[in-house]
Design goal:
The chain has 244 residues and is α/β, with parallel strands linked by helices. It has helices at residues 42-48, 66-69, 72-82, 97-108, 113-116, 173-178, 201-207, 223-227; strands at residues 3-10, 24-29, 33-36, 58-60, 89-93, 121-125, 130-132, 135-141, 151-157, 160-164, 183-187, 216-219, 234-235, 241-243. The longest helix has 12 residues, at 97-108. The protein is globular. The model has no long low-confidence stretch (mean pLDDT 97).
Length: 244
């Protein structure tokens, strides 16, 4: 019982550096199929990967930037007009999740919000631990653009733990977020540039021995990180599948 599979749908930064799709991770547990983030360009690779969007039970959002939640309107387009989704879908995100998503839909496709409301949609906001099917979900505040309401995400099922930092500069919340996890996917936008709101490899490397995770994987990498030959930590590989 627990988490079974992780597939990297998108691991790019906002600019799609290295021709990577925007952030999106697909997880399967015994009872649940979910996405962690759904960036604007990720929907294409979800479909190309052979994942049936109608099978998705849950979408977790780390924060409200387009490369992390901009794919939701396109997910809804596919579900409503092409596959006629009837299965319930739950979206969990930071405060005002429903308001933010519906505003995005109206900006991109005015008038479709009312149609999409005909689907069986549930919106929840992070609040301590949320139990969903066989999952226990927690969100941890991180340090990124404050208007985007940034969080890291921890998903537990059985004896398995998946964690994701979201976009963030270093914060000690990452210790608790990733504690005793099987997989911790951590953003690492730069190698040594110190840019507010994002991590660089040198800072993360100084902290890595205190991070209690069985497997640490880097994501959201810019060109400097992608092209560096000095990286000792594992980098996520787009389209790769990992077992727990």
């Amino acid at each position: 019982m627990g988490l079974q599979k992780l597939k990297i749908i998108g691991n790019g930064d906002a600019f799609g550096s290295g021709n990577r799709f925007h952030t999106c991770f697909y997880l399967e547990s015994d009872k649940t199929k979910l996405l962690v983030d759904c960036g604007a360009t990720a929907i294409h690779n979800l479909i190309e990967s052979g994942i049936d969007l109608n099978d998705i039970d849950l979408i977790l959002l780390s924060h409200f930037h387009g490369d992390h939640y901009g794919g939701i309107p396109f997910f809804f387009l596919n579900s409503y007009f092409l596959t006629y989704r009837v299965k319930p879908l739950t979206i969990i995100g930071p405060e005002k999740c429903k308001t933010r998503i519906e505003a995005l839909i109206e900006a991109l496709y005015p008038g479709l919000t009312e149609k999409f409301r005909q689907m069986d949609l549930t919106y929840l906001e992070y609040n301590e631990t949320i139990n969903f099917n066989d999952l226990a979900i927690r969100a941890f505040p991180v340090v990124h653009s404050p208007p985007s309401n940034p969080h890291g995400i921890r998903v537990e099922s059985g004896s398995n733990v998946f964690c994701y930092s979201g976009d963030t500069e270093w914060t000690d919340n990452l210790y608790d977020l990733s504690l005793n996890s099987d997989i911790f996917i951590c953003e690492c936008n730069y190698y040594d540039l110190d840019i507010s709101g994002h991590l660089n490899y040198k800072i993360l490397w100084d902290k890595v021995n205190k991070l209690k995770s069985r497997r640490i994987m880097l994501t959201h990498m810019g060109e400097e990180m992608i092209n560096s030959s000095q990286i000792e930590l594992e980098r996520t590989v787009q389209d790769q599948e990992y077992n727990f």
